[in-house]
Protein: Methyltransferase domain-containing protein
Amino acid sequence: MEALGDEYPAGLDTYSFVSRTELREFAAQVAAGDTLIDLGCGRGGPGLWVAGTAGAKLVGVDLAQPALAHARRLADRLGVQAAFTVGSFESPPLRDATADVVMTVDAFLFTPDKRAGFTELARVLRPGGRLAMTSWDYDGQPRNRPPQVPDHRPLAEEAGLTVLRYDETDDWLRRCQVFADFLLEHADEAAAEAGMPTSVLRAALRDMRDSTDLMTRRFLLVAEKPR
Structure:
């Protein structure tokens, strides 16, 4: 895909902005036998790749039933041990301290209450567990989006996590603009997977493309829950 070039993770059926390098960064946080939670997993590709590479057990959580159905088929095709369930960042159907690693790829910006989202991310982590996530910081509030924040680190720390890394994505702005155009070209398929009307998704994608001037960075965050 043009936005990522050789960094595009082919074969994972992903609509996210994640690159091969970032997938390796996610996998570096996971050990064999770990329980990996992918919140906002969508069609499942990134989480399945990380779990398969690391030898982890995957639990994917998303609000979109069609995307979860696709993720289950992809897990069977890739031969990765995985379970998928409906849930949100603010209310994941997971017990306390069940995850060795929580990952989330480009989905957290859709969370209406980011403080509650981080609280839940920390809650499901075991002591010593790690959170790895990609998302965007905003200098202003984009139209028709949930509330955004200028820096996610204070929210992570407020939830009791220790931020280890906060790395800005290379060439993120150009990639974001190209990626939005790519999704607009494939809006029918993406809308079917998300279980929403194509017109609604197209409007949301145009808003995303038009709001890039409010974005200050796309980041990879790695944080740890103290033991």
The chain has a mean pLDDT of 89. The first helix runs from residue 20 to 27. The helical segments are 20-27, 45-54, 65-78, 114-124, 153-158, 172-185, 187-194, 198-210. DSSP finds eight helices and seven strands in the chain.
